[in-house]
Amino acid sequence: MRRYGIIVLVLGVCLAVAGILSLSWGQMKIPFLHVVAGLAQGMELPFLTQVPVPADEMAVIWHIRLPRTIVGLLTGAGLGISGAVLQGIFANQLADPGIIGVSSGASVGAVLAIATGAAGVTMFALPVGALVGALAAVGLTVAMAWRHGRIPVMTLLLSGVVVGMFLAAFSAAVLTLLDVNKLQEYLFWTIGGLDYRRWEHVLLGIGPILGSAVVMLLLARQLNVLVLGDNEARAVGMAVKRYRLLLLVLASLATAASVCISGNIGFVGLVVPHMMRLIIGPDHRRLLPASLLAGAAFLVLCDAIGRVIVPGCEIRVGIMTAFVGTPYFLYLLRRYQRSLD
Amino acid sequence: MVLSIRDLQAGYSGKTILQQVSFSVERGELVSLVGPNGAGKSTLLKTIRGLLPALQGKIFLQGKDITKLSEREFARRAGYLQQQMQVPFAYTVRQIVQTGRYPYLHWWQQAGKQDEEIVRACLSYTGALDFLDCPVQELSGGQQQRVYLAKILAQQTPILLLDEPATGLDLIYQEEIFRFCRELCAAGRTIVMVVHELSLAARFSSRLLLLSQGKVLADGKPEQVLTPELLTKAYGAPIAVKENPLTGHMDIYTTGSRRQDERQARLLQAVLGREVTE
């Protein structure tokens, strides 16, 4: 218990550090003191009022970097916790939010928004298209797996794969019809990024992500029982179908909202819960809060590093998470193979 | 009457496994379901627990039709230990036994102090308290079974349904499980379990139910059920039963025919790659 408290504290500190770095780093470098003072003054908090923060720094913090950072925090938290929930539902540590068709559904929504030209008319067309596509794909996956009032995990997994492949083919088919400009727009969307995120994006994502995260946290004890399988969960009196469906919908909603405000960002939903499980064990009452915090910190840190690692050039966060995530994943794979020897 | 089954027909959709099964169990009985593989023992247990729907007939738990019980109510009346439980991830013993408290908590509640005390009491009863914070995966088969038994004891149900709780364990653990069961029944719990080892079932059960090809072939005290005639009929092979004069337990063994022995000997030669002589 005390160890868990320390871990949460460390994650909290990481989160704060990542947030401050993200507000400070970029084309215009803002000193840490100015970041903290700028935040306090903007919210009219009664401290650091004497520190002078230049107006241009104030504008960068409040209009560019703060919405960007908050979108990053929301996305990371949403992907982290829903990855943990999905790995629990499938009792499989290789499951990630892509497994039930969310990402490919979002891509179809996005590509349609671009192809129809709607994305050029309003900035909301793309995220809303992605959200609708993602939820529709999950609905299709679940409907295909539904048999005799039950949702068997194995069937769900397979139908997720099938739906994902079909939708990927569909996106590709639409892409072949697009002109170069629209192709580029889509390409940028597929590599998730946090650049040009505005307060509107925060508003779009904050409700579904925080709302579903809170309910998932409340259902952590139920998830612990669900992980043990259908018979075991029913033997202790759980309404298995209801909870499996509910958790699936919540995880999909959080993922879809994350994809909708920042594009497809891989590895966070896979690696972060996995890492947390190694550190604090599989009890979801602890794993879910830790995955949420770690996901948020990891994503924002990756984004901040991506802004400064190559001078004069910004590397999108979707690329950064893959660069950091892949070696770690390979390491896990090697370790797993060694444990089999 | 704690459990009553009337003219039950059960199985999977399109495949009936059990037919015309009727029996009742009184409080404190230790009933073992015995019979050859595929006789329908596990199917019967799953149907009693409501994990498989009955195709026909009725099952009553403490006088109540099981189809009218909510999931929670059901889990407060009957505990179910499944065959070869698999725990994914490195869940600790405490976390697994805590799931036994599930039917007593509302969805917004967390396990409290009282639940923790029950978890500890059940684990110390089955002798597994030392493993409280160990991952279940790392324990031996016998130790795991103690943990799973503690889990369904934490569920505090009057009826326990156990599917082969002792199969695959060392002799000492096997007898230990049976002793726990006898003690629990003496204290007023009712146990229905699937057992493979006939002589162990005979020693510890108050009653045996011999199943064969989906039907109850015999129902009664161990010495009434474990007769050469009934066993031969159930298992489809000649079986002898002798009381061991030293232990007073029953020795049960097959008596193969001579012709079959000769045929086996020839086949063995073929398996070993030697020339088969007629």
UniProtKB/TrEMBL annotation, chain B:
Check the record and name the Pfam families matching this protein. ABC_tran
Keyword ATP-binding attached: yes
Q: Which CDD domains match?
A: ABC_Iron-Siderophores_B12_Hemin
Question: Do the record's keywords include ATP-binding?
Answer: yes
Domain (ABC transporter) spans 3-238
Keyword set, alphabetical order: ATP-binding, Nucleotide-binding, Translocase, Transport
GO MF annotations, alphabetized: ATP binding; ATP hydrolysis activity
Q: Which InterPro entries match?
A: AAA+_ATPase, ABC_transporter-like_ATP-bd, P-loop_NTPase
Q: Which domain of life is it from?
A: Bacteria
Name of the featured protein:
ABC transporter ATP-binding protein
Source species of the chain: Selenomonas ruminis
